[in-house]
Write a structure and sequence with these properties.
about 250 residues; alpha/beta; eight-stranded parallel beta barrel; 8 helices; 10 strands; globular
């Protein structure tokens, strides 16, 4: 089974963006997630940034756009929902292949808002990822079943509570449980601290499962440029794990 590497890119520097997109795909990334304002954990990028990224990516690449207009919360009221629906349309028109979104009602999935967001994405033939709002949910098994029924394609998680600010390596046991509950009915995207130091361990979780990795800082140098050597190293560890299991 093919293992995907997703690279998260900061959309704020338009000059840097096109080169980062090209470098990520050339180095072997299968898709990119485009976000703005990474200091606030990623918000919806501008329409200009979406277009720049879409024009820079190869025909076989996937471009996922973060749909998150408001920081520090995942509650979606009528005003925010309307804005998110508009942003999904902008992403589609710019050339995206998918969107990354989430909506909560307290500590559970907001079924009404999520249903509306998925319907809008499907209208434009966009794949959907439920972002790390998932890590705020108390009952992850119930949420996986619900999101699968609603038609979400992927769930992004690092296996720890969103508010705990912990590394993905501290969530390994819960990640194993999440992957087991998903049972290949929905793709689990492991993100939140993926680096060359832990990629080998994380690829082991992906073995024979519908699982991919998501890297941000682990795929960039200190100046904000995507580093192809870091991407190569993460992917080479995937190859090594596959070889062990063949």
């Amino acid at each position: 089974m093919r293992k995907n590497l997703e690279v998260c890119l900061n959309a704020d520097d338009h000059i840097q963006l096109a080169d980062n997109v090209k470098t990520a795909f050339t180095a072997g990334a299968s898709r990119i997630e485009l976000c703005s304002t990474m200091q606030l954990e990623g918000l919806t990028p501008s329409a200009t940034a979406m277009t720049i990224a879409a024009h820079a990516m190869p025909s076989e690449g996937e471009l996922l756009i973060m749909i998150r207009p408001v920081a520090n919360q995942f509650i979606v009221d009528a005003t925010i929902l309307k804005l998110m629906l508009t942003q999904i349309a902008h992403a589609a028109h710019a050339g995206a292949t998918g969107v990354v979104l989430g909506a909560l009602n307290a500590n559970d999935v907001d079924i009404a808002a999520t249903t509306a967001l998925i319907a809008c994405a499907h209208k434009y033939n966009l794949a959907t990822t439920f972002h790390r709002a998932f890590d705020c949910i108390e009952d992850s098994e119930k949420a996986i079943g619900l999101l699968t029924e609603l038609g979400i394609d992927r769930i992004l998680t690092n296996g720890t509570k969103w508010t705990d600010d912990k590394s993905v390596m501290q969530g390994l046991n819960h990640l194993q449980t999440i992957i087991s509950h998903a049972n290949d009915h929905i793709e689990i995207v492991i993100g939140g601290g993926v680096t060359t130091d832990n990629a080998s361990t994380l690829w082991q979780l992906a073995n024979n499962n519908l699982v991919s990795l998501h890297a941000y800082s682990g795929a960039h140098n200190k100046d904000g440029w995507v580093d192809p050597l870091l991407i190569n190293a993460i992917l080479n560890q995937r190859t090594n794990e596959q070889a062990k299991n063949d």
